[in-house]
Amino acid sequence: MEKNDVKKLQKKLLSQKGSSISVGRSLDDNAISSFSHDYIEFLNNSKTEREAVASSVEFLKERGFVPFDPDKKYRPGDKAYWVNHQKSLIAFIVGSESLEKGTLITAAHIDSPRLDLKPRPLYEEASLAYFRTHYYGGIKKYQWTAIPLSIHGVVVLSDGREISVFIGEDDLDPVFYISDLLPHLSRKSQAGKTMGEIIVGEQLNVILGSKPIEYNEEIKDPVKLNVLHILNEKYDIVEDDLISAELEIVPAMTARYVGFDKSMIASYGQDDRVCAYTGLRALAELNAPKKTCILVLADKEEIGSVGNTGMNSDMLRNFITLLSHSLDVIPEKVFINSKCLSADVNVAYDPNFAEVYERQNTAYLNCGPTLSKYTGSGGKGGSNDASAEFLGEVRNAFDSEDVPWQIGELGKVDEGGGGTVAQFVSRLGIDTIDIGVGLLSMHSPYELSSCFDVYALFKAVNCFFRLM
Ligand code: MN
Ligand code: MN
User: Fold this and answer.
1) pLDDT, tens digit, for every residue of 144-180?
2) Would you tell me which CATH number, out of the four given (3.40.640.10, 3.30.200.20, 3.40.630.10, 1.10.510.10), belongs to the domain 19-112+268-467?
3) How many Å lie between the centroid of ligand 2 and the Cα of residue 48?
4) 67: CA distance to ligand 1 center in Å?
5) pLDDT per residue as tens digits for the range 73-117
6) How far does residue 302's CA lie from ligand 2's centre (Å)?
7) Domain 114-251 has CATH 3.20.20.150
8) C-alpha 442 – ligand 2 centre gap (Å)
9) Nearest Cα to Cα of residue 106 among 380, 264, 291, 318
């Protein structure tokens, strides 16, 4: 073989995409900056699943989406959204083709790891008032100490009123705090322990106040009483009302650019609001799609997609069934012909922890969103495992528009693993594949993404909605 022929053969046979760290940057820098700016605003307004639903509804309304009415006869181009119990949401645009030909779905989740209050949370000890918490999702507990925390959520009072609580985000607000042990005294009680033992669940107690209602030795728990007094004045709450509450403790930090070049974003809750926001933008910017395009923003993914707002409920099935009836088609035909991007964050290679990655099959920051054929752990357990045919179709669509993407797995084979909502979508007969941006410090109070990847994910989802 001639030298030139070998070079040609090399070009043809060796992969240029997917496993390479040098994926070409083909996206407009101004577009990336403006998208990142809007994404940061979304993150700051959407720290809980309820807030993410509220800001998504606001976003959709501004772009002509109206509440879903199952009794309405829908026509091509109609845009609507359906809110499921305040904590999950489905938005859609009706396509020009019959619904029977299938829908195109993007499914992300809007809950993030956090600390929830226990039903009887309030107590006083050593002249400090505290909330007891029960953590939600997979966290490294020690990361939640010694950082500013805020409280978000609702309390339902004995008279049925629902009160919103939102404190710790405004610069003038106080924040809340979980203490850690000083290094000087950690030698025995922390230094020799494993990560999971350094701080345990029952130590995640949030400091609320230190001032007694009155300096009077006859009053029991005067600091707790003072906190209750403040809660009562501000929100009309008495102690028993905290039983019927959903108050979530989240980091009080706001989303910020990272690096001299401002090429990255650090924020709480990018898993998986990055996919929620890119999905919203990708849907809203469609113009008369052929297929009916659906965005699902689900709750409860971090604890197994449970409950009536999680993806393991019948929310998507019910929605597609209702829409099918309104368009006079058979829902089962719609499921079998539908396709879905299960949009959730992935891991990005971190040189600080090189030992957990298999470098040929991991994603890198700044190289576009990551497609994963499968997720899961212990031999793909709990994964969806997309078909070769569907993966082929998706990668060809992306390549046809020069959308940057890469292929990746979540770390080394036996290192751990994780799942997504993909399995709960594909159960309906829907071809499903995982996609998402790679993060550093996933599930920490302050996760890191790349602006390039976030914008590229938007391009990818938009491309999927138009071309598949
Ligand atoms: Mn996730
Ligand atoms: Mn997660």
Assistant:
1) 999 999 999 999 999 999 999 999 999 999 999 999 9
2) 3.40.630.10
3) 14
4) 27
5) 999 999 999 999 999 999 999 999 999 999 999 999 999 999 999
6) 5
7) no
8) 7
9) 291
